[in-house]
């Protein structure tokens, strides 16, 4: 039996949050969700139901089909990147990763703590193909590439926004801090991979030596170390895969820009520019990261889109309508994800138990 098989993390050793912290996080997520619902109701009322319905009507079924297909192409990019993030002797095909990514997107979108179970749900859905620890580490590897490209995308968006428009001093300071923090995290992440720093396992080892969480960390610290070794091993063994994976992540974001441009071209009276679509998508990506605890990004996505469209002088109603149309797309793919969950015999209890 290989060490990878031996060290598959059982439920008892994959706990990341104690019950108190988990409860606090749940309460925080519920509060954010309620605030988001309040924001959503406010924007619907301020813009007007008629204007929003008129904008949705301009998209039509054919336009919505384009949005659905476009997002499928984005999911495909993430699935292909994940496929390349698994290394010998294990491998996954698109028939494995594509449904798993859709399942992860569904879990991430529809529950307040979806961000905590998204990766686990992907790994659980392919556990019949690869050991759980291999699935989790390959997902983490793909997420590193995704995070790197996303950080650059947000930095360019924030920099462009800052240099193109006159903003209040508070916004300027906030955006400058965002740019600085993103650059620092990118530098730290690259340095960690190059130097192969085992921060997570070292922290677990220190906690274990001090006598805390011994039941969990008796085997758990070994799982964490193995998890890190899988990620760093990928860097050593497959440097040729780096460029293809990064290009897939870039295409993922470019398709998001196309989606924003396409929707604007349908619902706005003005001729949209690629630059405007880029700014909208970069802000949307930032909101997705910051407010991931809010199911379907209800309210907060509308707030971000309205802020950008008002700044671009496109109109607040256009931004809110854009965000609502995107919610339709999210709901569609969430439904597909639920179908895959049922088809694969997975359960919410199984996924959340393994992650908590």
Describe it for me?
- This protein is mainly α.
- It has one domain.
- It is 80% helix and 0% strand.
- It is built from 14 helices and no strands.
- The protein has helices spanning 3-6, 19-47, 49-84, 94-110, 114-125, 132-164, 169-195, 199-209, 214-237, 242-267, 274-290, 300-311, 316-343, 348-355.
- Helix 3 (49-84) crosses helix 6 and helix 5 packs across helix 6.
- It is globular, with a radius of gyration of 21 Å.
- It starts with a helix and ends with a helix.
- The model is unreliable at 1-16 (pLDDT under 50).
List keywords for this structure.
mainly alpha; 14 helices; disordered N terminus; 356 residues
Summarize the structure.
The protein has 356 residues and is mostly helical.
């Amino acid at each position: 039996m290989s060490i990878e098989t031996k060290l598959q993390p059982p439920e008892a050793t994959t706990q990341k949050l104690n019950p108190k912290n988990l409860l606090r996080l749940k309460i925080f997520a519920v509060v954010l969700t309620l605030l988001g619902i309040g924001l959503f109701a406010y924007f619907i009322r301020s813009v007007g139901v008629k204007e929003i319905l008129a904008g949705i009507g301009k998209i039509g079924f054919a336009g919505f089909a384009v949005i659905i297909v476009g997002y499928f192409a984005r999911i495909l990019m993430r699935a292909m990147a994940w496929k390349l993030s698994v290394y010998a002797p294990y491998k996954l095909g698109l028939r494995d990763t594509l449904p798993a990514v859709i399942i992860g997107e569904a879990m991430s979108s529809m529950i307040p703590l979806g961000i905590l179970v998204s990766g686990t749900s992907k790994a659980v859905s392919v556990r019949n193909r690869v050991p759980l620890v291999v699935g989790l580490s390959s997902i983490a590897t793909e997420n590193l590439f995704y995070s790197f490209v996303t950080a650059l995308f947000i930095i360019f968006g924030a920099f462009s926004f800052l240099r193109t428009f006159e903003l209040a001093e508070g916004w300027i300071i906030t955006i400058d801090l965002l740019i600085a923090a993103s650059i620092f995290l990118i530098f730290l992440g690259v340095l960690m991979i190059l130097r192969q720093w085992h921060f997570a396992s070292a922290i677990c080892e220190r906690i274990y030596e001090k006598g805390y969480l011994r039941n969990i960390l008796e085997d758990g610290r070994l799982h964490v170390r193995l998890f890190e070794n899988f990620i760093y091993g990928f860097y050593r063994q497959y440097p040729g895969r780096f460029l293809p994976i990064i290009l897939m992540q870039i295409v993922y974001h470019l398709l998001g820009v196309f989606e924003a441009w396409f929707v604007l071209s349908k619902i706005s009276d003005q001729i949209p520019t690629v630059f405007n679509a880029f700014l909208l998508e970069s802000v949307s990506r930032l909101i997705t990261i910051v407010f991931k605890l809010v199911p379907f990004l209800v309210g907060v996505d509308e707030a971000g889109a309205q802020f950008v469209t008002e700044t671009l002088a496109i109109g607040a109603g256009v931004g809110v309508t854009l965000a609502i149309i995107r919610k339709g797309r999210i709901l569609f793919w969430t439904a597909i994800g639920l179908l895959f969950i049922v088809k694969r015999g997975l359960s919410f209890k199984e996924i959340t138990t393994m992650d908590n």
